[in-house]
Amino acid sequence: QGYEELERQLKEVFKERSNILRQLSKTSKELEGIKVNLQSLKNDEASAKSDVQKLLELGQKQREEMKSLQEAFQKQLNEATEKAEKQQATINFLKTEMERKSKMIRDLQNENKSLKNKLLSGNKLCGIHAEEVSKV
């Protein structure tokens, strides 16, 4: 009877051992699954960090390009403004010259009229003088 009891206890120990081994195997598989999931999460995190870094770099590059464009547009605007100011100065100069020359033309026309009148008066006087000379 002691032998049977030992045999029963031994069977029970083996059964318990089998259950423990099954449980360990199951736990090991679960741990392996968790390990795979954890590695996947780490990879996802690294990928997300990489994507964020790329987006940050792209944003910085776009800001630099926008700044460069803004500087180029400002330069063009300054050049256009300077050119417009020079053209306006030229227009003002030409307008002043035109007014000055128009005044000169009017003055010359008036002087011409005056000389014509003097010439006509002189001719009349010459005519009168000639008549007087012929009478004498």
Q: How would you explain this protein's 3D organization?
A:
- The protein is mostly helical.
- The chain has one domain.
- 99% of the residues lie in helices and 0% in strands.
- It contains one helix and no strands.
- The longest helix is centred in the middle third of the chain and has 134 residues.
- It is rod-shaped and about 200 Å long.
- The N and C termini lie far apart (198 Å).
- 0% of the residues are buried.
Helix content bin? over 70%
Average residue-wise pLDDT: 94
Task: Please tally the β strands and state the result.
Answer: 0
Beta-strand proportion = under 5%
Q: In one word, what is the shape?
A: rod-shaped
Please write the string of helix (H) and strand (E) elements.
Answer: H
The helix/strand class is: mainly alpha
Integer-rounded radius of gyration? 58 Å
How many individual helices? 1
Protein name: Leucine zipper protein 2
InterPro entries: Luzp2
Coiled coil: 3-125
Keywords: Coiled coil
